[in-house]
UniProtKB/TrEMBL annotation:
It comes from Siccirubricoccus soli. This is Helix-turn-helix domain-containing protein. Residues 158-224 form the HTH crp-type domain. It holds the Pfam family HTH_Crp_2. Signal peptide: none annotated. It comes from the Bacteria. PROSITE patterns: HTH_CRP_2 (PS51063).
Amino acid sequence: MGSSSAEDEEGIRSWTVRRSGNRLLDRLPLADLELLQAQFAPVILAMGSQLEFGDRTASFVIFPCDATVLSLQIATADNRMVEAVTIGAEGVAGLPGELSGLAGLRWQVLAGGPALKMDAARLADAAAVAPSLQTLLDGYRTALLGQAMQAAACAALHQVEQRTCRRLLALHDRIGRPELPMTQEALADALGVRRTTITRIVAGLEDQGLVQHRRSRILVLDRAGLESVSCECHGAVAAMFARLVPGLYPTPGG
């Protein structure tokens, strides 16, 4: 009876540790998760807030959990912000040597919710003694850079209608539900275009029955239809993640 009780306690402990809500963390062996668990500080990120990581050597990292979504943005010469990459529960923001350590970049919270905050130096120490963690972080860094490069190519080569659909699909993947917390103004800012352009595009998508615009929200009605009018960049990013860090990128719409 005592043995059964011990097994039950171990099962509960394992289940608790693995319910971080972050895909990267939940891919780790239990022993590596336990190495990190005591270092986490649970936080709630408010939609629209900005994360300040400081200089090129970030003092902390943020693991978005569940449907929390962050946007890494870069400032233009006229002080406008354009999105470089989007991350959700598949990744981590603020890694030393990652894109966000460069000047003129910032993380903004697109979809608020839970996250885990951790000292960057302690994460580095843990990775030094946990090969599985180091492998995941290295693969994720590469995938994040690839995502940024894909976004740059997309901005240069594809029409704004296609880029808008790609942006909605990326958010839909990470939110995991049809209703996206995205205003037309925020969508225009992310793509670096005028709001009137986005208003026209969203109206066209509504006419096709693909989305429905609500106040401060865009509702995805037809995921497959949205994919059909998007460019290939969304699928390319998902395929790259699957190759570099299998299992991290969320399945379509989920």
